[in-house]
Amino acid sequence: MEYEPVIGLEVHAQLLTKTKIFCGCPTTFGAEPNKYTCPVCTGMPGALPVLNKQVVEFTIRMALATHCNIAPYSVFARKNYFYPDLPKGYQISQYELPIAEHGYVEIQLNGKKKRIGITRIHMEEDAGKLVHKGTIETTEASYVDFNRSSVPLIEIVSEPDIRSPKEAAEYLKELRTLLQYLEICDGNMEEGSLRCDANVSVRPKGSKKFGTRTEVKNLNSFRNVEHALDYEIKRQIEVIESGEEVVQETRLWDANNGKTLSMRGKEEAHDYRYFPDPDLVPLKIDKEWIEEVRKSLPELPDQKRERFVSQYGIPEYDAAILTATKALANYYEKTVAIFNEPKTVSNWIMSELLRELKRDDKDIEDILITPEKLAALLKLIKDGTISGKIAKEVFVQMYETGKEAREIVEERGLAQLSNEDELSNVIDEVLSSLPKEVEEYKKGKEKLFGFFIGQVMKRTKNRANPKLVNEILKKKLKG
Q1: Domain boundary pick from 273, 292, 311
Q2: Could you count the other beta carbons within 10 Å of the beta carbon of residue 12?
Q3: What's the predicted TM-score (pTM) here?
Q4: Which of 42, 166, 362, 427 is the most buried (most CB within 10 A)?
Q5: Is the pLDDT of residue 177 over 80?
Q6: Residue ending a domain, choose from 292, 314, 333
Q7: How far is CA 52 from CA 58, 187, 280, in A?
């Protein structure tokens, strides 16, 4: 039997506010354990929460960017469960009346667009962090750091519209891009400011009925999302085909061993005993505030892609890659502003620059080659100072050292050889060393022309001006 997966993602994004959602403690990452805590975020008796207005504004920004309906009236609720990193014994979240519902995000995969529905976006506080000693299977001890307790989150819950692990990864990437463009979350999955839980089930292809789902936690990278879902889909199919039933449960992704592990039975909403938080009044949002936030929105990824195609005349494929992050899009535009050949700049960024960044697992912000330095390199190619092939060698040196292109060219003597007499002598040497090939060329084997060019370039260590070599060589072979 052929099966299809049904996937929905629950994405938690930590908001870039300076203080926590219900108190004035800093949200700074990386501080010593339990440094940024107070009676409110550690749940001391009698401490009362006060809502951070910027959290609401950031949530409205994301709701508008994902085409959600924003509720004029929403309510905070207590989500009750007992876990060592939850100091109050409940989490302040939203349940029946969230701030935003019924939106969507468009993804593009293999040249096709697909709309993934968003069920809801709601605000909540984060729990603390458990630091485990030992392995995921044999924990020796656990320590609790409450610095993260009450850090503001938005949870973005998708519809079960995702049908493959690759679609899931693309959807998560699109959400991350939106959050970064809006400047409300840094999207750093390694630091936990963007986290993802996946609900996945399988069903016979063509069936409308959903299978029994499992929730997979601990997905902190796009690669882990794909790998975990691949594994879990195969595991569920094997369970079904062996005659057993898939159990509804929460599972952890063990990236080291490439498998999911059973964690606990999957809770339903009634297990959390939700009820409105009596310490927080209902939240009312008027239309004026929504419109004020709408006017303040930056140019979003889709808008930027369309503009790049129309303004710079580059293909949609290029525009999609160049706008993947706001920082990369800014880098491209700054370079084009100095060296106004948009497609050339696009080619160099997509091939040379992104290749180096991917190899070193770096972001564009970490690179030593500024837009000014890249533009200067491209100018050296255009004015004939260096060839395109030499330029690639220079680029690597620039990437590693941060030096200017001209400085590297001068230090290593890489300037292009454009002296006609000197090139004529080199070409004479090449042709005289290959009498048989010259004879064959003159008899009609014209493909050898490229071979002669290659030999000249080899003798000049790729410094010869290709255009000039081409012209001189044609004249000599005709003679």
Answers
A1: 292
A2: 17
A3: 0.83
A4: 427
A5: yes
A6: 292
A7: 11, 21, 12
